[in-house]
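Team,

Forwarding the record for the chain on the shared tracking sheet. I've put the sequence and predicted structure together so nobody has to dig through attachments.
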Amino acid sequence: MKNEDTNSDERGSGLDRRQLLAAGLGALALANSAQARIRVFAPAGGEAGDAQPRTLVLVQLSGGNDALSMVVPWADDGYNKVRDAIRIGAKEVQKLDDYRGLHPELKQLRKLWDKRHMAIVEGCSYPTPNRSHFKSMEIWQTASLSGRTGGDGWIGRMCDAAFPEGAAPELIVHVGGAAPYSVFSRTHPAIVFQTPYSYKWVAPEDEDRELYKESGKDDMGGESKGQKRVLEHLRGVLNDANESSLRIRRAAAEYDPRVEYPAEDFAQTLKVAAALIDARIGTRVISVELGGFDTHNNQRPAHDACMRRLDAGLGAFLNDIIGTQAGRDVIVVCFSEFGRRVKENGSRGTDHGVAAPMLVFGEQVKGGLYGEHPSLTDLMDGDLRMTTDFSSVYGTVIEKWFKAEQEKVLDAQYPTLGFVEA
């Protein structure tokens, strides 16, 4: 990660309309839905079916996942001594070895571990950790300690390196609400929607008119070259958005999953992801989010529910795509903005921490443990110390999965890990 200091702030991680206009990324599509306002950042140009078949699905666990309750060091005295109400004991945990195990609700993910399709990268964080949700998430989403001021999101920069030209308009897709900053790109704007059936173009007239006026008139009072370029650009964006909308809605409508997905939001976003992957329309990065991990109080039932949702949705998705031709070319990376304190607090919960494992899944993933498990007694202000810079995980995805140069994306060369087959 780029080692640049900056002051912490409390800005959110989603992208806003004004930022996109200022960056000249095109127009924002607002879907006319009675039930939800759907935001779409529609790119211009590009063709589907580019030569690179591999896809990354990025799963953001928002709120600060208590990873010690996800990958449980059940045999460590340092864990058992400081956790009582939220402890997951040896009789509950799904043991992976004589030290660690998975949360009891992660039954489908355990089966993927047994099949060697799941990698656990331990102790992930970054230098000089920040315990603010917003600032820490910015750092993860940009792979820069300066956060948003460091430029585009890491996914945007990766796509610049891996797909310099000829990329499909659907290259980057976020399924859900506000787009994470990781997908922010001046050259490969992400398509963002909550449901594919609501993804359609509705011209944002007021702001498009503003762009038109700002481009100025010529000396004779007629349309300037700048205004003509704006109109041509908006027409191009409109055409691309209409065509992209049809492709995405058709992919969702025609998809026939091999498993039944739970009828809840997180699982359904992953069903859409599976449809886009199966349709082969040129999508190479799909971003989804699961929230609810800020468990300061009464953590056990809340975190158990998050684990059930993660297992049900991600388990269905992976069981659906693994074994298919398209599914062979997919990896999934799960991360959270930070872990949580080792010791439970007085409210039967945990407070913001530092290091936590990242999870990687896929048919071409070499399953197992990577990195070093942090000590539960040699702590940093009550937190687990970083043993793996998360940029090594990003660098591995960039270099080994997408065959791009990680230094162009991360401004540094990080040690790659062995979870991706070369």
